[in-house]
Write a structure and sequence with these properties.
By secondary structure, the chain is an alpha+beta fold. The protein has a single domain, classed as outer membrane lipoprotein receptor (LolB), chain A. Strands 1, 2, 3, 4, 5, 6, 7, 8, 9, 10, 11, 12, 13 and 14 form a 14-stranded antiparallel sheet that branches. Strand 3 and strand 4 form a beta hairpin. The longest helix is centred in the N-terminal third of the chain and has 15 residues. It is globular, with a radius of gyration of 18 Å.
Length: 266
């Protein structure tokens, strides 16, 4: 590695993780965020906005939704033009209008955002990163670099979730992520956790950031579960509409819970 590359990597590590002691997992994630355009550019955006088509299991047509998230506080609102539905999340509570989707609004509010911005969210405060390992995706011969993400207690609604990042060893782009879902009211009543894998299939560069534009979700045995056949109209500069943080008279507050009072063995 040349002296120039060492300097650039050192700057990336300081930018990503501050002055705390860096670990091999942090070094890999710093490489990944740089491969996707850098952390500073992403964090300095006032908002992240995109339109996604989500094809849930068994659905005949995709669920089109426009996602707008305020960086920093991670407040969010979503629009579903075909359903004429809306979801809002102010960081403490979620509410919806005309929502008849398959997931609780609180669970869904940041779901697509997290999937599509995982290359940068891996560097979030409260994220713990394992030492790097290697892993393969089914019959793909590539030996990917793997880093497991876990969360500090009280980070998000479900801090017991984890992600295992599969990072391309040549480009350092994120290729896939194994993840768990433990949000109780998004699961069947007799299931406590499910494990799935999202595979990123296509990317595009928007404002210098490399973002996913197509991805699919599988069970661990490679059974197809859902897909995002198109993620489009990315923006990192749209203003955040503060009026969407006011609960409208027609809104329904989401009372779903991420936790169960009694756990049921799977």
């Amino acid at each position: 590695m040349t002296a120039r590359l060492l300097v650039l990597l050192s700057i990336a590590l300081l930018t990503t993780f501050g002055c705390s002691r860096t670990t091999p997992g942090m070094e890999v994630v710093a490489h990944m965020t740089e491969a996707h355009g850098g952390l500073d550019k992403w964090r300095s955006a006032p908002s992240v906005s995109f339109e996604a088509a989500l094809l849930p299991p068994g659905a005949s047509s995709p669920l089109i939704h426009r996602v707008t998230v305020e960086q920093g506080p991670r407040r969010a609102y979503l629009d579903f033009p075909e359903m004429e539905a809306r979801i809002s999340w102010d960081g403490e509570k979620a509410w919806s209008e005309n929502w008849e989707g398959p997931f609780p609004p609180r669970f869904f509010a940041l779901l697509s955002y997290y999937f599509m911005n995982l290359p940068w969210l891996a560097a979030d405060p409260g994220v713990n990163l394992s030492d790097p390992g290697t892993g393969r995706l089914w019959d793909d011969p590539t030996e990917y670099i793997t880093v497991k993400m876990t969360f500090e207690p009280c980070v998000g609604d479900t801090p017991d979730d984890y992600y295992i990042l599969y990072i391309d060893p040549t480009s350092y782009r994120l290729r896939a992520a194994e993840f768990t879902v433990t949000y109780a009211d998004a699961l069947p009543p007799d299931v406590d956790v499910i494990t799935e894998i999202i595979v990123y299939e296509e990317f595009a560069k928007v404002d210098g950031l490399t973002v996913p534009t197509k991805c699919s979700v599988y069970a661990k045995d490679r059974s197809p579960l859902a897909s995002f056949p198109e993620v489009r109209d990315w923006s990192f500069s749209r203003s955040f509409d503060e009026s969407r943080m006011v609960v409208s008279p027609n809104a329904v507050l989401d009372t779903s819970s991420p936790n169960r009072t009694a756990k049921t063995p799977q």
